[in-house]
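Issue 218. Parser rejects a valid record. Input:
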Amino acid sequence: MKRFAWVLLLVPLLAACKRDSDLPNFYSLPDFSLTDQTGKTTTLHDLAGRVWVADFIFTNCGGTCPLMTDKMRKLADALPAEVHLVSFTVDPTRDTPKVLAAYAEEHGASRDRWLFLTGEKQAMYDICVTGFKLPLDTEGGTPAEPIAHSTRFVLVDKHGDIRGYYSGTEEDELRRLSADAKKLS
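Output the parser choked on:
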């Protein structure tokens, strides 16, 4: 009888593992300590136990950032409430917590579900390039988008591991991201 009880407990656990096993496990994120739109410190440890989607934007962008933020807003509506969103700025000199708070409010972002993070310039560069393995060029770009950065959305699991990269501007990629996030949540 005890064996049967163990089997009953293991079946849902194994099913959950199988469910997300078709997703690759790219990299583990390094720890970080950044500041959110309310001035509160946020670390990777604070996000532990949560599935989240990350992107890299800056608030005065005249290029793809407004479109990406709009797509994140739509993801917030489509995803289960336990999936969180994290937008990292690539322009920390201008994007202070106060500026990020205004941007978040303008885009209907709830602080308990969608964080906008800033920090020292080197820390932001490191998390983007070294942590998420995404390109970032703070010297190049165009007049509309003076900081060249990735338009990828990144799916992160409950352990801080990157599980997927998706175009932040293509609808079919966003549907795939939504389905994958639901597998992990």
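Fixed in the parser; the record now loads. Confidence is low (pLDDT under 50) at residues 1-19.
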